[in-house]
Specification:
Blueprint: H1 18-45, H2 51-59, H3 61-89, H4 93-118
Pathway: Carbohydrate metabolism; tricarboxylic acid cycle
GO molecular function, one term: electron transfer activity
Cofactor: heme
Length: 121
C-alpha cells in the first residue's frame, strides 16, 4: 500500500518557521506603513522644511522610539526575507550559513548605526 502524502498525513520537513514569520512580516509591514504615513503627514502639515524643522521632529522622545521600533521591524522583516532566500536558493550548507551569518552581522551593524543616528539628534 502506497503512503498517502496529502492533508494531515503529509510529511513536513524543514525548519517550520512558516506562520510565525509570515505574521511577523505582515505586522512589521503595518508598522512601517504607519511610520511612513506619520512622516508624510508631518511633511505635508509642517511649515519648517529646514534641517531645524526635521531635527525638532526627530528630537522628540516619542518619535525617536517610534523610529527605533520601525527600524527594528524593518531589520527583522529583512532578516526573515533574506533567510528565506538563502534557505531556498543556496543549497551548500556552509555557503548558506556563511551568508546567513554575514546577513545577521550586517543587520546588527545597521541597527547600531540607527541607534547612533537617532540619539545624536
Amino acid at each position: 500500500m502506497a503512503k498517502n502524502n496529502v492533508g494531515r498525513n503529509r510529511l513536513v520537513v524543514g525548519a517550520h518557521y512558516g506562520l510565525k514569520d509570515w505574521m511577523a512580516q505582515r505586522l512589521t509591514a503595518v508598522v512601517m506603513a504607519v511610520y511612513t504615513f506619520t512622516l508624510l503627514i508631518s511633511f505635508l502639515t509642517g511649515n519648517n522644511f529646514s534641517y531645524e524643522g526635521w531635527s525638532h521632529l526627530f528630537s522628540q522622545q516619542w518619535f525617536k522610539l517610534f523610529s527605533l521600533v520601525t527600524f527594528a521591524g524593518l531589520y527583522y522583516h529583512a532578516w526573515v526575507g533574506m533567510r528565506d532566500i538563502w534557505m531556498d536558493y543556496i543549497k551548500p550548507v556552509g555557503v548558506r550559513l556563511t551568508l546567513q551569518a554575514l546577513t545577521i552581522l550586517w543587520l546588527i551593524g545597521c541597527a547600531a548605526w540607527t541607534v547612533q543616528i537617532l540619539w545624536s539628534v
